[in-house]
Design goal:
It contains 18 helices and 14 strands. Helix 14 links the parallel strand 10 and strand 11. It is α/β, with parallel strands linked by helices. Helices cover 44% and strands 14% of the residues. The structure holds nicotinamide-adenine-dinucleotide (NAD) and uridine-5'-diphosphate-glucuronic acid (UGA). Uridine-5'-diphosphate-glucuronic acid binds next to helix 9.
């Protein structure tokens, strides 16, 4: 099939490359001319394991091309995927300006029947909104489908090619056929439903996962106060197949480019129809508290932050990505700085722009450089590299002895054997 993908971010670029890998002829469009130039030159603008090889192979075999021109991509396309950003607007609702602009551009360049599928995460009612924006620009027939994406960053290529399910919200059989053909080679349940239900499924899934993490973090805080061990609790709970073991890792709370904005947008959606969502709002509140609690514990351990340096190991919102959007590590950096600490940070791949940190964050070359002269170190991102830190070397360069393991990655005996005052999440506070 001939496919156009609008937006070449984490979702668009991965979708485009994977659809080409499945045998379709894909044109990826982006308004960011610099990004398209880099892609044309063989450079991948994001860190995503396996993506570079996949893009290279499909560009070479002629199935994947990049352009800034809708006029080049749209007229021939049988299926068009919208994969542009839907960040939070100032009030927490989804900012629809990129989806709106993409819809109008698509409408202007349609030359015959096409299916327009919204892959971006969007509020209920967006299919109707896109339909009306496209119809305002064209007299050609088209259908709009909700096709929310469920991939995770850091595992995006694998997730796209091995999805747990594909959600297709349609109101016409013709469009359902096109979508079934598009994903014919992906062997997984296809949930075909109406557009509104598909749109809500995406928000509900993300909010449920975020709530599960907030729940275990709440138990983790309780464990610290009553002398229980959150890892044992999570294991005991997770073995019940009705609960499941995934997303029960206590830590610093959820972050990233999706959970925070999507949970906020769902909360706003509830408000907009006078239907507040107390469970969803509680998940947000617990997430906020989870960040603060770790900084409180550090402040207590150090006897205040005045004149103290803290090394934050990790900047990305999780391992295997360079994405720092709403990262717990960055929130902790900001809170430490706000309370008067000097902060130095390190991450295997991610960098934090100074406008995000709010100050010029010292970016160290490695964890040992970050820890140089530090009174405390916080392990903030669950990178595999941090699991195998040389703790003797880390301790030898530090001025103090506090090691806060925000992701419970290290072995307590080993950390204590090096002379660290080793603090973890969800274990008795001594
Ligand atoms: P992103 O910010 O990485 O990329 C968005 C891209 O769209 C950018 O390159 C931008 O230049 C481009 N763009 C903006 N307006 C455009 C327009 N009018 N025409 C063409 N291109 C345009 O975003 P992302 O992380 O890929 O997320 C995209 C959407 O997918 C969001 O709604 C997000 O919630 C959803 N989603 C993301 C993930 C994820 O893991 N990142 C997973 C599932 C769903
Ligand atoms: C998440 C969902 O997992 C995807 O299915 C969805 O498509 C995507 O959002 C989206 O809509 O964009 P992602 O944000 O890439 O994917 O990352 P996750 O692996 O889900 O992690 C999210 C956050 O939760 C991270 O900050 C991570 O550190 C945290 N987390 C995750 C925990 O604190 N504990 C856990 O047990 C799991």
């Amino acid at each position: 099939m001939r496919v156009a993908v609008i937006g070449t971010g984490y979702v668009g670029l991965v979708s485009g490359a994977c659809l080409a890998e499945l045998g379709h002829r894909v044109t990826c469009v982006d308004v960011d001319a610099g990004k398209i130039e880099r892609l044309k030159g063989g450079e991948i603008p994001i860190f995503e394991p396996g993506l570079e090889e996949l893009v290279r192979r499909n560009v070479e075999n002629g199935r994947l091309t990049f352009t800034t021109s809708f006029a080049e991509a749209i007229p021939d396309a049988e299926a068009i995927s919208i994969a542009v950003g839907t960040p939070s607007a100032a009030d927490g609702s989804a900012d629809m300006r990129y989806v709106d602009a993409a819809s109008e551009e698509i409408g202007r360049h349609l030359s015959g029947y096409a299916v327009i599928a919204t892959k971006s995460t969007v509020p209920v009612g967006t299919s109707e909104r896109v339909t009306s924006l496209v119809a305002g620009q064209t007299s050609h027939p088209f259908d709009v489908v909700s096709n929310p994406e469920t991939l995770r960053e850091g595992r995006a290529v694998y997730d796209f090619l091995h999805p747990s399910r594909i959600i297709i919200g349609v109101s016409s059989e013709r469009a359902a056929d096109v979508m079934t053909h598009l994903f014919a080679y992906l062997d997984c349940p296809k949930v075909v439903t109406d557009p509104r239900s598909a749109e809500l499924t995406k928000y509900a899934a993300n909010a449920f996962l975020a709530t599960k993490i907030s729940f275990i973090n709440e138990m983790s805080h309780l464990c610290e106060d009553v002398g229980a061990d959150v890892e044992a609790v999570a294991k005991g709970m997770g073995l019940d197949p009705r609960i499941g073991k995934d997303f029960l890792r206590a830590g610093l709370g959820w972050g990233g480019s999706c959970f925070p904005k999507d949970v906020r947008a769902l909360s706003k959606l509830g408000e907009s129809v006078s239907h507040p969502l107390p469970v969803v709002n509680a998940a947000i509140a617990t997430n906020r508290m989870t960040r603060t609690r770790v900084v409180d514990r550090l402040e207590k351990a150090l006897g205040g932050f005045e004149g103290k340096t803290v090394a934050v190991l990790g900047r990305a919102f999780k391992d295997n990505t360079d994405d720092t959007r709403e990262s717990a590590a960055v929130d902790i950096v900001k809170e430490l700085a706000r309370r008067g600490a000097t902060v130095r940070a390190d991450d295997p791949v991610a960098r934090v722009p100074s406008e995000q940190a709010g100050f010029d964050l010292v970016h160290a070359a490695d964890p040992y450089e970050a820890a140089q002269g530090a009174h405390a170190a916080v392990l903030a991102t669950e990178w595999e590299e941090f699991r195998t830190l040389d703790l003797a070397r880390l301790k030898s360069v530090m001025a103090g002895d506090v090691l806060m393991d925000g992701r419970n990655l290290l072995k307590p005996d080993e950390a204590r054997a090096q002379g660290f005052r080793y603090l973890r999440v969800g274990k008795r506070i001594v």
